[in-house]
């Protein structure tokens, strides 16, 4: 099965630094609030924590490339405080517009496009 053709999916994989779980949770809550109040095309932005609280997986889903670009404008102010408590990597799946592709590539985010079978 495939997602709607315009949707963009993202994952963030986060390694939480030792002793920083509570601060990470506080910052993650701020990120969720930014998404709720500023992003207009974010369909999913869900956090999943492993059993020992050392890693978090964020599942992200955007209506389209414009929504992905909007998120890339709204969330970066959180990167600096997050960098003090965790290490973040991620990837994007979908068919981004050239503008979103350029923004993702300049941020070093790998892009995976649909495999047509």
From TrEMBL:
Signal peptide: none
Sequence ranges assigned to domain ABM in this UniProt record: 14-72
SUPFAM superfamilies: Dimeric alpha+beta barrel (SSF54909)
Protein name: ABM domain-containing protein
